[in-house]
Amino acid sequence: TTPPPPPRPADEFTPRPQPARPAQPTRAPQPTRPAEPAFDPTSVEFQPIYITNDDGTIAPPPGISELAAMRSNPLISDDLWPVLEVLLEERYADFNTRVINNPRRAVRIAAGEADNIDVGDRESLQGIAELSGPFDPQGGPITYLANQGVLDENMATMSRHIWRDYSNAMNVQIMEIAGDSDDQNEQLNMQARFLFSEGLGETYAAIDRVFRVVLMDLDSPEAKDAMRLTGGAFRKAAAAVLEDKSDDELAELFTAAAPKL
Q: Under a CB-based contact definition with an 8 Å cutoff, are residues 180 and 160 in contact?
């Protein structure tokens, strides 16, 4: 038998030379844009929202302090306020509804039950949290208006800066007053009461609006006497008139007041 022929050697593969790529033009380095400096609210002059009395004590602004801070904010133009007022009216209506829906809690707050916060008493803190829960808006008017898009970041930052200027002044006063106390918790209690009262500013204003309508409907001598007062004195006097009413009576009075607000 004749042996098979030997295998043919494989042709050696030679790759085809690739054409040279044209040189890429060299790009000149692009200048980096410097980052804009962060807004510094301390660089803007403003009128403080509090008054320092001759004896050194601090007189807080009337009404809601965050609104006073916005009024004092030079970054918020007069032309913007009509828009802010429309949104704030909606917020006022919301707080009116909270008071109307929680008459007993509103009476307790007006009576000053929240004025005695004790940071060392857990039951006291839990009781205050339960009492004020339905009135917690999860942020004050500055945050609310910023979230609505009508206050830009600088406006909101400046407004908070003005409010903190007032808060810091109050804290200095609190430290001076509490420095002579034998109670180690006195300073913390005073600071907590101040901050809690600030957080209830819009609730207090709504209580004033609703209670005045309710007292007008009562038309009693005690109600008329309370109507002559303002601020915290009015709320306490009005609470004294209303606290003996039953829950059903309060609900009826407050519901009847709603269309008149």
A: no
CA–CA distance, 160 with 73 (Å, rounded to integer): 9
Contact 206, 92 (CB under 8 A): yes
Report the C-alpha gap between 155 and 158 in whole angstroms: 5
Does residue 15 carry a pLDDT above 60? Answer: no
Backbone angles phi and psi of 52, in degrees to 5:
-95, 115
Residue 59 DSSP symbol: E
pTM above 0.85, yes or no: no
Candidates 34, 69, 60, 63; CA nearest to 157 is: 69
Sequence-distant (6+) residues with CB within 8 A of 201 are: 63, 64, 65, 66, 140
Cβ–Cβ under 8 Å, residues 107 and 239: yes
Q: Who wins on pLDDT, 175 or 4? A: 175
Separation between Cα atoms, residue 95 and residue 2, nearest integer Å: 111
Measured CA to CA, the distance from residue 187 to residue 212 in angstroms comes to 34
DSSP-based three-state secondary structure for 58? strand
Residues of the chain above pLDDT 70, percent: 86
What integer is the mean pLDDT of 200-216?
Answer: 97
Backbone torsion region of residue 166, taken as left when φ is above 0, otherwise alpha when ψ lies between -120 and 50, otherwise beta: alpha
Of 143, 138, 142, 257, which is closest to residue 207 (Cα–Cα)? Answer: 257
What are the structure tokens assigned to 217, written together? Answer: 């409907």
